[in-house]
Amino acid sequence: MTSPVDAFEQLVDLFDHRGDQVLEIEIIPPSLGSSFLKDGCAMGISKKALIQAYMVARRVFFETCTSMSSNELVADLLREQSSSVANKEKFVTEIMLLFDCEHLTAANWRKCRILAALAQHEGPSNQTSQQTRMLKTELTLLQSYQCSPLPRHTKSPTLWSHRLWTLEHLINLVELSVDTLLDLQRHELEVVLRAAELHPRNYYAFTYARHLRSLLVRTAATITTESISCWELRLAKALLSPVLDWCLAHPRDISGWSFGLHVLGHCEDRQSHEEAVKRVLQFALDVGWEGESLWTFVDQAVRRFDLEDTVVNECLPLPRTLERPGAVAEDQTAQASWRAWLSRAQANWAACKADRS
Predict the structure, then answer these.
(1) Which residue, 35, 167, 263, 326, has fewest beta-carbon neighbours within 10 Å?
(2) How many CA atoms lie within 13 A of 223 on its CB side?
(3) How confident is the model at residue 161 (pLDDT cuts 50, 70, 90)?
(4) Average pLDDT of the chain, as a whole number
(5) What is the 3-state secondary structure (H, E, C) of 140-187?
């Protein structure tokens, strides 16, 4: 039987050897007969062992970490840099956040530790690479939480807020090019979409994506001569296709469609609006999709970007066999607008079926 100290030591050893790797962490059932399982970057831990490790980590944290001043944090960082053996205190908050992703005190202590490292050598110096590495390691730790099949971590507002804070400090620390910004946006979108896949209707993940896009737009405008509006359009267009791909693969997810509409709103040209709505409609018509989330996106996009003529004339014309189609559509729109578009699609499906028979 694993003791609390043994469970704590095993998790410390795991995080100590993680480096910058992204782990996939999962809670395993006790029926497997082991408290810990590890295969490459995949790791399993029983709920009992995690609770035991957390109790030890929490005790160590409140006995040693919470009382550390800024100078003590700096001294601890210097000892860590000069020694090949990491202090166990470094991993205490990692274990605490693995158990309780909303432990605000643990998350804030990690912020204080990062700020102490950033203040250690302000301005250009040979320490910048160490500070950059520390921030990147923090991001991969958060990705290990947010992209693992854990019950709450994928939708944790504390973790997503901490990720945005960390990324903002990383952007301020390093020199970025246009290509680097686009790569960063692409990578962060992958993290968001993976978290949204693990936890459907992940409002917090997509809220992070909104804030991140705004941060990258402001950053891009400071490193180039292009205006903010130009970067709004450029970054939104880079997001649009992968976001729509994900939404069509998860058509029930209203949070994904809401973010897709947000991105589409920053693509100011009408061609992008029309192509996106046509693509969604073509998918719905091809597979016979009747879910509310997709048709709500269609309705809101049509209203927001004034695409009714495009949708009615090209994608969803009412069959000629229906009497007074305009009156039917108006009546349905008055009741529930998204249902009006669905009714048009159903009428088309019925007409196609009648033609085939």
Answers:
(1) 326
(2) 17
(3) very high
(4) 88
(5) HHHHHHHCCCCCCHHHCHHHHHHHHHHHHHHHHHCCCCHHHHHHHHHH
Say if 204 falls within a structural domain.
no
- Read off the pTM: 0.90
- Residue listed under structure tokens 């927001």: 304
Inside any domain, residue 38: yes
Of 58-67, 223-232, 276-285, the range with the highest mean pLDDT is 276-285
Contact call for residues 328 and 339 (beta carbons, < 8 A): no
Q: Going by C-beta distance under 8 Å and a sequence separation of 6 or more, which residues neighbour residue 306?
A: none
Q: Which residues contact 203 (CB under 8 A, 6 or more apart)?
A: 155, 255
Q: How confident is the model at residue 325 (pLDDT cuts 50, 70, 90)?
A: very low
Please name which of 131, 11, 17 lies closest in space to residue 84, comparing C-alpha atoms: 17
d(CA 106, CA 94): 8
CA–chain centroid gap for 120, Å, is 31
C-alpha distances (whole Å) from 62 to each of 56, 304, 320 are: 10, 52, 74
| Domain end position, chosen among 123, 142, 168 | 123
The last residue of one of the domains, among 123, 154, 186, is 123
Res 186 pLDDT > 70 = yes
Residue 61 lies inside a defined structural domain of this protein: yes
Query: 27 near 44, Cβ under 8 Å?
Result: yes
Residues 6+ apart with CB under 8 A from 277: 298, 301, 302, 305, 307, 310, 311, 315
248-304 pLDDT tens trace? 999 999 999 999 999 999 998 899 999 999 999 999 999 999 999 999 999 999 999
Q: Is the pLDDT of residue 308 over 50?
A: yes
- Measured between alpha carbons, how far is 252 from 300 in angstroms, rounded to an integer? 16
Using a 10 angstrom Cβ sphere, with 0-12 exposed, 13-18 middle and 19 or more buried, the burial of residue 271 is exposed
CA dist., res. 96 & res. 54, Å (int): 6
What is the pLDDT at residue 329? 47
- Number of structural domains (the chain) is 2
Q: Which helix (H) or strand (E) holds 25?
A: strand 24-28
Domain span at 303: 269-357
Residues 6+ apart with CB under 8 A from 141: 18, 94
For residue 148, is it within any domain? Answer: no
